[in-house]
Amino acid sequence: MVKLGLLDHLAAGPVICAEGYLFELERRGYLQAGAYVPEVVLDFPEQVENLHRDFLRAGSDVIEAFTYYAHREKLRLIDRERDLELINRTALAIAKKVAAEGGALVAGNISNTNIFQPGDTEANRQVRAMFEEQVGWAAEAGVDYIIAETIPWVGEAEIALDVMKHAKLPTVVTLAVHREGLLRDGFTPVEAAKRLADQGADVVGLNCARGPRTMLPLVKEIRAAVKTHVAALPVPYRTTPEEPTFQSLTERDAQCTRCIPDGRPFPVALDPFQASRYEIADFGREAFGANIRYLGVCCGAGPHHIRALAEALGRRPPASRFSPDMSKH
Ligand SMILES: [Zn+2]
Q1: How many A from CA of 33 to the centre of ligand 1?
Q2: For residue 9, how far is its CA from the centre of ligand 1 (angstroms)?
Q3: Alpha-carbon distance 81 to 66, whole Å?
Q4: Beta strand 15-18 with 294-297: parallel, antiparallel or unpaired?
Q5: Predicted TM-score (pTM) above 0.85
């Protein structure tokens, strides 16, 4: 049986990609908030494997290798640069193993480097080198496609896309649009997506930072402006026009003076802002209704969100066996 690729799947219907491994493994006690480096891949590989499997059962069509922030700059900050290649290769092997259990696609992953600077030739040479080594390991592992995600600069995304295209694999580029509503180099999300589509990205869109309510309007504008497939992978939090990102959310319960000690829910006290599974189902229906086909949930997602998304798109993944039936209550 020939395994269909990402673009065949997108031509036929929606593709679900679960993200948010950092937040979920932090909540479970296997990864540190702050550093947010996936050391768990080496320290507790069975936990990464189990989480991939949870998302697969819940309906994810893709197992994304957990190499987010497993790049040279972040590993240098935690003095673990020597483990860079091993983390990447191990994460890719775990993703492949679990994907094979359910016929899922395997995606390689690169992410924001935090060192990109427009016009800084030396910094951007380093960015390219960081992407090249990670994309190289992903290609050697035989991934089906590569995702560049959570990238806040168009210029950084363009380097990522160029490196990914050299690997001759399908490409997904998802940008993070922070509070100002623009990319850090001043482009609107539509302008950014058009540039990346024109440069050959197969899928362009947004991930992370914004909840469904403040991401949907932007991805609908992108949908109207490009001919490529479009991606939307919000965080499962109730962001608002006034506080459009999960980093900008503040507590509004006057009784709650001690609930969040430093007054800043992001990143580890976002629980009161969590979107329910029903809100994620609504997001999925609305996005797919607008012909946005590459869908998922980012930081904060649990398997219940992915299952609700899958069911909203007409699927019945294995975990649907245990979907609620209150007639039995
Ligand atoms: Zn995220």
Answers
A1: 13
A2: 23
A3: 17
A4: parallel
A5: yes
Q: Measured at the alpha carbon of residue 67, what is the angle toward residues 71 and 180, in degrees to the nearest 5? A: 75
For the chain, percent of residues with pLDDT exceeding 70: 99
CA of residue 67 to ligand 1 center, whole Å = 13
Ligand 1 mean position, distance from CA 152 (Å): 12
Distance CA 309, CA 111 (A): 24
- What are the DSSP E strand ranges found in the chain? 15-18, 62-64, 105-111, 145-151, 171-175, 203-207, 229-233, 294-297
- What is the 68 CA–ligand 1 centroid distance (Å)? 10
Cβ 31 vs Cβ 40: under 8 Å: yes
Polymer length in residues for the chain: 329
pLDDT at residue 87, rounded to an integer: 96
Q: Are strands 203-207 and 171-175 parallel, antiparallel or unpaired?
A: parallel
Phi-psi region of 87 (alpha: psi -120 to 50; beta: other; left: phi over 0): alpha
253 alpha carbon to ligand 1 midpoint, in Å? 25
Cα dihedral 34/283/278/269 (nearest 10): 20
Query: pLDDT tens digits for 220-252?
Result: 999 999 999 999 999 999 999 999 999 999 988
Dist. CA 243–CA 81, nearest whole Å: 36
CA of 69 to the centre of ligand 1 (A): 11
